[in-house]
Amino acid sequence: MKNFQIILLVVFGLLAGLAAAFFSGAIELPTKASDSVTGGAAGKVIMWGTVSSRDLRETIEFFNKQLGGEVTLSYVEKNPLTFEKDLLDSFAFGGTPDVFLLSNDLITLYSDKVIEIPYEGFTQRMFSDTYIQAADVFKTETGILGYPFLGDPMVMFYNKDHFDSKGIVAPPKYWKDFSTLVPELTEKNELLEIKKSGVAFGESKNIKHFKEILLAMNIQLGNNVVVRDFNKGLYTSVFSGKSLISAKPAEETLKFFLEFSNPLKSVYSWNKSMPDSLTAFVGGDLSIYFGFASEIPLITQINPNLNFDIANIPQVEGSSNTLTYSKIYAVSVSKASKNPQASFYVAGQLANGQIAAPFSLVSGLSPVRRDLLVPTASVTKFTDVYYKSAIASRSWIDPSYEKTNIIFSDMVENVLSGLKDYSKSVTDTNAELKALLAR
Questions:
Q1: What are the CA-CA distances from residue 239 to residues 50, 67, 282, 364, 391 (Å)?
Q2: I need a labelling partner for 16 at 20 to 30 A (CA). Which of 209, 296, 385, 437 fits?
């Protein structure tokens, strides 16, 4: 390795360790950046992400007024559908952000484009004591790819008026109870046409987050879907494999999911002719909707009169663990940053509870630091539920959000159309995930 490269690695390691010290509390956070021991970090730092700039406005203003000193932070909101391409173009043609929000579906593409924070500066013990387990996706053999910042756990939304009208006193805790409840909530006419649905399961085209629903159920059955081989430093799919809980977890979850679109089953409650699941729920035509905690403000905004609540998603009865799926975001510093010192100062400050806690309340997202997942008097009525869901959540290393959506949709549609049986469809999905990870 050339001397210049060695010097850069040493400098980056020192900066990352310093940011870790700020973040962990080993060094007290300063009031002004110019008063800190960062060596007087200064300059403009540009951050990209898909989180709403409206939600981040107060956070950016707080940083610049109270913590920035000679460092100024600006945020650029990117379209989630084009964020991957925008980042790739920025690395290829210039204009790369100094800092960006690295999500679990960008890890395989950008793990080599961010400055890794070595375990020497932020140990694995510190990491596990500080963060929920969903954040483990940012770990490598030698360090972490960024400071975990926010999570978005999957929860179960339910229409309280629907439940009350059927004399149902509480949302289901287990999938067995869930299957019993759905026929009670689903209303059909004399032609067996669905007029009001209990749940949107069994399709892919008109069910929001169908992939994440399947992932959550697989996680509950011990299927990690994608794992990292820490000896080889590679990611691979284990989707079609067995787990300690089930011999065929992927097939088991797929069969359960598809039953709800089978007219011959008692749980039949959804079909291709229905509107998308979110529209049906906010319109009062769907009793149970599986979505993310961040959708609470959106649902409230679309229909302020909707009487809904949230609960943890149903669990596998008899399991010792309560689990759900969560999207997860980290604050990562780009290797292409022209000001790594100021960038690490920003990353360390953003991940600290002084900013992460109030921002999570504004955005509807969840903190990922364990010490922040304690509800206080200032939180909403929903916070207690999705905080607990965040603690119980796991994530996965998605090689490409859009491409895996297509892969999982094909898995569902191939079985529904009769082109493949459950086993073949799951096996082929596993092969496609492996090929995507190997690119």
A1: 28, 45, 33, 31, 24
A2: 437
